[in-house]
Amino acid sequence: MYSGKPSRLFAKYALPQMIGLLFNSVYIIVDGVFIGHRLGTASMAAAAVSVPLVEILIALAMAVASGAGVLGSGNIARGEDEQAVKVFNTAVACALGMGLLFAALGNVLIDALASLLGSTEEIHGEAVEYMRYIVTFSPFLLLSFLLSGMARNDGRPRLAMTALVVGSCSNIVLDYVFMYPLDMGIGGAALATALGPIFSVLILLPHFLLGRGKLRFALPELGLRRAGKIYALGFPSFIMEFTIGIITFFYNSAIVRHDYGELGLAAYLVIGYLMLIILTLFLGMAEGLQPVFSYFAGSGEPERSRALRTFSTRIFLALGVACYLLIVFFSRGFFSIFSPDDIVLIDFMESRSLPYFSGFFLAGYNILMISYWQSGGLTGKAMAVSLSRSVIWLPILIFVLPAVFGREALWLCHSLGEALTACTAFALLRMSEPGPRGAGRRTHAGREKVLRGRDEA
Description:
The protein is 84% helix and 0% strand.
């Protein structure tokens, strides 16, 4: 299942997940296009308030999927298929439980949640309307990401990709139907987004119901220790996925604080869409490689794992540079899709996007290292890099740089944060792999610790 050169494994596992997640990002962006054309800038700002909410739901799903994937892939590598089934069903129970709780509490606290995420008095009503659909259908969103991740760990990366693509395309169709013929306003855009994951779940269910792989549905055991292990191993993925939401929250707050107003919020919504596309490329490839790294850790093949990491690093860095060049030359055309007649908004987005994305070629390296260490059970290193990207460097920079150099320095903070995080990740890598002999001893010891932890789970 995991035979072949690094290039072959990368193509088989990283690319399908990247394509699937890219389509998933597209359906969020399509909402912005329809809202911008149909309802205008204020409604775009209302939708922007919900971005951290969507991201935290995706982050929760990917945390459970990654944690279960690390455990399950290790079980499969050692021939412990029944243990892998128990891990899978525990993960499903966790995802459904979180989704139902989120739906219940989200509807009760919807007004306070919208205010917390940055809605202003002018857009509060639309923000609440958009968010209500998202929280109500949150169990399906969580389940769609979990099942696609587990299908990937079960050797079906193309099925996972297909499910995400179909869910995304259905949203595009429903966006048009709800917002134009049915004229449902911003609620129609939110409903289309909420219904998309249901189609993904329907495509994924037969694989597990009919036993087409090693993983299948069964009554979950009340294994709190196993659930705790899933969350512990998946927490770096939660931070990695939710970093987009955290970044959006910090930037939305700073934009309001520095008097950019609704123009700044609407502009950052679209800049955030472009950020989402780029980070989705990296996140998709990193998530696609997780089963391979986890399998190598479970089967005791550190050399193959490092070879795949080295090959992937080159791809991630090259893709990051290519993305920035595309932004330099073609970002105005992308921004014009959302509000073609609002020249002031387009000019604002174009001028701020160049500093904002200047260091994004390093984001891919950071995300790859998080996935690499997490898949091998080295959660301490993965957490250090995840936290560096989200709640360490970025808040410090957003607080300090505009105060010292003026508010325009705000748009450089994200890239500087990625650069400082890359330095952190590289230092951790050099400490753990100082040379061929040290790398072998430390990797072997780390792998034995991981295997003992998995056996206990």
